[in-house]
Design brief:
It comes from Tessaracoccus lubricantis. With about 160 residues, this protein is an alpha+beta fold. The chain contains five helices and eight strands; from the N terminus they run E-E-E-H-H-E-E-E-H-E-H-E-H. It is globular, with a radius of gyration of 16 Å.
């Protein structure tokens, strides 16, 4: 497993949100970004966590974090573990009173939770090698344009769309 950082969140050419993960420690043999396409609500949840924004009502991921805290459990790590048929799979590893528990999850949910509880994010090396984009394939201008497009999306989204 390779520890990664959330490098950026952007909108692709089709208008779909994508997170870009990058190894935390540069490796000459693995200079890649891993793009994972996610839903709009998950993208908003990730941006809220990145900005440290406090909403009037908790989002699902805030609720998850509070529930884990109330149960004396903590997120040890999240990991993108495999890629099958174009779908990424992830796991959330919890440290609980009854021992370690591993929960199947979507990468977008895992990342949104990890950002809230400050848990490390990992990706299986074979997933990075299979689905990663070589550094340099995405120009600074393209990355900047994607970030700008996502910012425009956030400007138009209504927070009430995400209230339960």
């Amino acid at each position: 497993m390779i520890q990664v950082d959330l490098n950026s969140i952007a909108i692709d050419a089709r208008g779909l949100p994508v997170v870009l993960l990058k190894p935390s420690v540069p490796r000459p043999d693995l200079r890649v970004f891993l793009p994972i396409w996610i839903g709009g609500q998950e993208a908003t949840a990730i941006m809220v966590a990145l900005e440290g924004a406090v909403l009037e009502r908790p989002m699902s991921y805030d609720l998850m974090a509070r529930l884990l805290d109330a149960m004396d459990a903590r997120v040890e790590k999240v990991a993108v573990t495999k890629l099958e048929g174009g779908t990424f799979f992830a796991e959330i590893t919890l440290d609980t009173l009854t021992g370690q528990q591993v929960i199947d999850a979507r990468p977008s949910d895992s990342i949104a939770l990890a950002l809230r509880v400050h848990a490390p994010i990992f990706v299986a090396e074979e997933v990075l090698r299979e689905a990663g984009i070589q550094e340099g394939e995405l120009t600074d201008a393209e990355e900047e344009e994607q970030v700008e497009q996502f910012s425009e999306f956030l400007d138009t989204v209504d927070p009430d769309d995400f209230r339960g």
